[in-house]
Backbone:
């Protein structure tokens, strides 16, 4: 998480009410953001070993683009933040339209190879036609991922 809120984020801090705070609270507090004619409520905290940002909307879940935008506001560009899907036995759902970003402090997060998501360097239009010469991925005996079935 960023060491402290940027001036843009700080201006959107709620100063009154039960979650009211001021700059002395650092990243901890409630923030309201307006984007594309919608309001997103963010509650951020950085205690107990976790950086946490909850993002909610009054009538729907935040979109992927909104979550990426909020992630960029609160976390450093090269930090990984995740959304967890825990076991059902520990679910907590206090708001039907709220999503969370988490980062454990002092611990790295293992990431899968980007090839599991898609092919870097091409856009969604190029990927539609499979004109990138990459149709399949297979794992070699040594655990390395290799290209198979494409043009090269």
Residues:
């Amino acid at each position: 998480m960023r060491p402290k809120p940027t001036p843009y984020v700080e201006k959107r801090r709620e100063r009154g009410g039960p979650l009211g705070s001021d700059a002395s609270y650092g990243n901890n507090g409630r923030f309201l953001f307006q984007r594309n004619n919608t309001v997103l409520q963010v509650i951020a905290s950085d205690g107990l070993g976790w950086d946490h940002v909850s993002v909610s909307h009054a009538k729907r879940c935040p979109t992927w683009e909104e979550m990426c935008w909020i992630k960029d506001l609160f976390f450093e560009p090269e930090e990984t933040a995740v959304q967890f899907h825990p076991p059902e036995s520990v679910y907590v759902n206090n708001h039907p339209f709220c999503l969370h970003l988490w980062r454990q402090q002092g611990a790295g997060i293992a990431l899968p190879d980007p090839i599991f998501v898609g092919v870097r360097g091409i856009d969604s239009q190029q990927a539609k036609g499979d004109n990138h010469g990459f149709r399949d991925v297979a794992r070699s005996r040594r655990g390395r991922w290799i290209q198979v079935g494409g043009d090269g």
